[in-house]
UniProtKB/TrEMBL annotation:
<dbReference type="Pfam" id="PF04389">
    <property type="entry name" value="Peptidase_M28"/>
</dbReference>
<protein>
    <recommendedName>
        <fullName>Carboxypeptidase Q</fullName>
    </recommendedName>
</protein>
<keyword id="KW-0121">Carboxypeptidase</keyword>
<dbReference type="InterPro" id="IPR046450">
    <property type="entry name" value="PA_dom_sf"/>
</dbReference>
<keyword id="KW-0482">Metalloprotease</keyword>
<keyword id="KW-0256">Endoplasmic reticulum</keyword>
<dbReference type="GO" id="GO:0005764">
    <property type="term" value="C:lysosome"/>
</dbReference>
<keyword id="KW-0458">Lysosome</keyword>
<dbReference type="GO" id="GO:0004180">
    <property type="term" value="F:carboxypeptidase activity"/>
</dbReference>
<keyword id="KW-0862">Zinc</keyword>
<dbReference type="GO" id="GO:0006508">
    <property type="term" value="P:proteolysis"/>
</dbReference>
<keyword id="KW-0732">Signal</keyword>
<keyword id="KW-0378">Hydrolase</keyword>
<keyword id="KW-0333">Golgi apparatus</keyword>
<dbReference type="Pfam" id="PF02225">
    <property type="entry name" value="PA"/>
</dbReference>
<dbReference type="InterPro" id="IPR039866">
    <property type="entry name" value="CPQ"/>
</dbReference>
<feature type="domain" description="PA">
    <location>
        <begin position="91"/>
        <end position="185"/>
    </location>
</feature>
Length: 436
C-alpha cells in the first residue's frame, strides 16, 4: 500500500492538469475554451492510462455576456449579469429582501418591482437556499428585475445561472453585485427607482462530456465524475478545475492499481454544469441507471483540507467512506442528507447511489467560487494529493465485487426531499420531476 500512496503524494499529474485548465481563460459552457478544456482532459485521461478516451457532444442553449448595468438617479454601480439572464432592462422600485428567505418573499409586495437578495442564509436557518430558488420566488411574486448581492466581502460581484431545464433563459433580467455595492443599494436606494439592464448574446451552441475507462469490461460500473466548464469571469480553479484535476489524478493512481479493480471504472468530465447540469442530465438520459454501482462526483474538492461527502441516504456509501477514513487515520466528514446541486443529481434523483465529494468549510456558500477571485493560488497542492489518496482507495473499495450498494426507489428520494424541506425550492425552480 505504501508504494502507491507515495506515488500519489509525489504526483504532479492532477496539479499540472489544473494549471492547464486555469490557463485557458474562459471555459463557459458552449465556448471554445470549454471545448479546449474537454480535449485537454480527454488527452490527460488517455495519458494517465485510461482507455477509450473520447468526447460526446450535444446541443445546448448558448449564452455569452455583454454589458450590464445598475443605474440609480445619482450613479451607475458595478455589476455583472447572471448567466441565462434574458437580454432585457427593467426600471422600477428596489425592494431589499435581505436574505431572501421564502417567507420574506411571501411578506413582500414585489409586483412590478426589482428584488435584491443576499447570497447567504442566516445562521439559524436549517437549509441552504440556492440562488435559483430566490430568483424564481422573485419571478413568482411578480418582480421585474433581480439583484443578487454577494455576502463575501472584497468588492466581488457573484455570478451563477438562472433559467430552468424547460426554459433555459430566465424570465427577468438578473445581475450580481458585490457585498459593498449591495450595502450601498440597500442603504441609499431601498424603495427608490433604479434600472437594471443586461445585454447577452443568446444562440444555439454545443457542449461535450469527456469519457474514459479503466478496469474489467463489466456491465456494472463506478462513475468518477467532475465538470470541466467554469464561469467566464475567472480561472475557475476551485469551481471546478480542482474537481477535474482530481479525476485525472485518480485515473493516474487507479491505472497503477488496475489489477485491483473488480468493476469497470468510468471517468466522466461533464460540460455545461454551471448552466443547469446540462451535461450530466444528457448522460443520465442515455445511461442504464441499473448498471451504475456508485458515483463519486468531485465538485468542491481541495477548497479545504478535509473531505466532506454528501451520501444522500445510502448507508453503504457512508460506511465505505468511514472505513477509508479509519484505515488512513485521516478524517472524512459524511453528510447523510440529500444535495441536489451538482452532477450526481440527475442520477441520484432516481435512486442511483452517489456521493457529492466536497471539502469542509465554515463558510456559507461558495466563498471565492463564482467570483473573479476563483484563482489557482487559493488551492494547495498538498490538499489535492492527500484527498486523491483517500478517494483512490474509496474508488477501489466501491469497485470490489463484494461491495453491494442498494439503489433507492425514486419515491424514497422524493419523500426525503419533502422531509428535508428541499422540495419547495425544487418545485419553484422547475427541478421537481416526481409525480406527487
Amino acid at each position: 500500500m505504501t508504494t502507491w500512496i507515495s506515488d500519489v503524494f509525489t504526483s504532479d499529474v492532477g496539479w499540472t492538469h489544473l494549471e492547464h485548465l486555469v490557463d485557458i481563460g474562459n471555459r463557459m459552457a458552449g465556448s471554445d475554451g470549454e471545448r479546449e478544456a474537454a480535449e485537454l482532459t480527454r488527452d490527460a485521461l488517455a495519458e494517465a492510462g485510461a482507455r477509450n478516451a473520447r468526447l460526446e457532444s450535444y446541443d445546448i442553449q448558448g449564452w455569452a455576456r455583454g454589458d450590464s448595468a445598475v443605474v440609480t438617479a445619482n450613479e451607475e454601480l458595478e455589476c455583472i449579469a447572471l448567466p441565462r439572464s434574458p437580454s432585457d432592462e427593467a426600471t422600477a422600485e428596489l425592494v431589499d429582501l435581505g436574505y431572501g428567505l421564502p417567507e420574506d418573499f411571501e411578506e413582500a409586495a414585489l409586483e412590478g418591482k426589482i428584488a435584491m437578495v443576499r447570497s447567504d442564509i442566516p445562521e439559524y436557518y436549517e437549509r441552504y437556499i440556492h440562488r435559483r430558488e430566490k430568483y424564481y420566488h422573485a419571478v413568482d411574486q411578480g418582480a421585474v428585475g433581480f439583484v443578487y448581492r454577494n455576502h463575501v466581502e472584497g468588492c466581488l460581484p457573484p455570478t451563477g445561472s438562472v433559467g430552468t431545464e424547460d426554459d433555459p433563459i430566465g424570465d427577468i433580467p438578473a445581475v450580481g453585485v458585490s457585498s459593498e455595492v449591495g450595502a450601498r443599494l440597500g442603504r441609499r436606494y431601498d424603495g427608490e427607482e433604479i434600472s437594471v439592464s443586461v445585454e447577452a448574446d443568446i444562440s444555439e451552441a454545443t457542449s461535450q462530456n469527456v469519457h474514459a475507462e479503466l478496469g474489467p469490461e463489466t456491465d456494472e460500473r463506478v462513475l468518477v465524475t467532475s465538470h470541466v466548464d467554469a464561469h467566464d469571469i475567472a480561472e475557475g480553479a476551485l469551481d471546478n478545475g480542482a474537481g477535474t484535476a482530481m479525476v485525472v489524478e485518480l485515473a493516474n493512481a487507479l491505472a497503477a492499481r488496475e489489477d485491483e479493480l473488480e468493476t469497470r471504472v468510468e471517468f466522466v468530465a461533464y460540460g455545461a454544469e454551471e448552466v443547469g447540469l446540462v451535461g450530466s442530465g444528457y448522460h443520465a438520459e442515455q445511461a442504464d441507471h441499473d448498471s451504475i454501482k456508485a458515483i463519486v462526483n468531485n465538485d468542491g474538492v481541495v477548497r479545504g483540507r478535509t473531505l466532506s461527502l454528501t451520501t444522500h441516504g445510502f448507508p453503504e456509501l457512508e460506511a465505505a467512506a468511514e472505513e477509508v477514513a479509519e484505515r488512513h487515520g485521516h478524517p472524512i466528514e459524511t453528510v447523510p442528507q440529500l444535495g441536489p446541486h451538482s452532477d450526481h443529481w440527475p442520477f441520484v434523483q432516481w435512486g442511483v447511489p452517489g456521493y457529492h465529494v466536497m471539502s469542509t468549510s465554515d463558510e456559507v456558500g461558495r466563498g471565492w467560487g463564482h467570483t473573479f477571485a476563483d484563482t489557482l493560488e487559493k488551492i494547495e497542492k498538498r490538499t489535492l494529493r492527500e484527498q486523491a489518496i483517500l478517494l483512490t482507495d474509496l474508488t477501489v473499495d466501491l469497485a470490489r465485487e463484494e461491495q453491494t450498494i442498494e439503489h433507492r426507489e425514486p419515491e424514497e428520494i422524493a419523500a426525503d426531499l419533502e422531509a428535508q424541506d428541499l422540495a419547495e425550492g425544487m418545485k419553484i425552480t422547475g427541478d421537481w420531476l416526481y409525480k406527487n
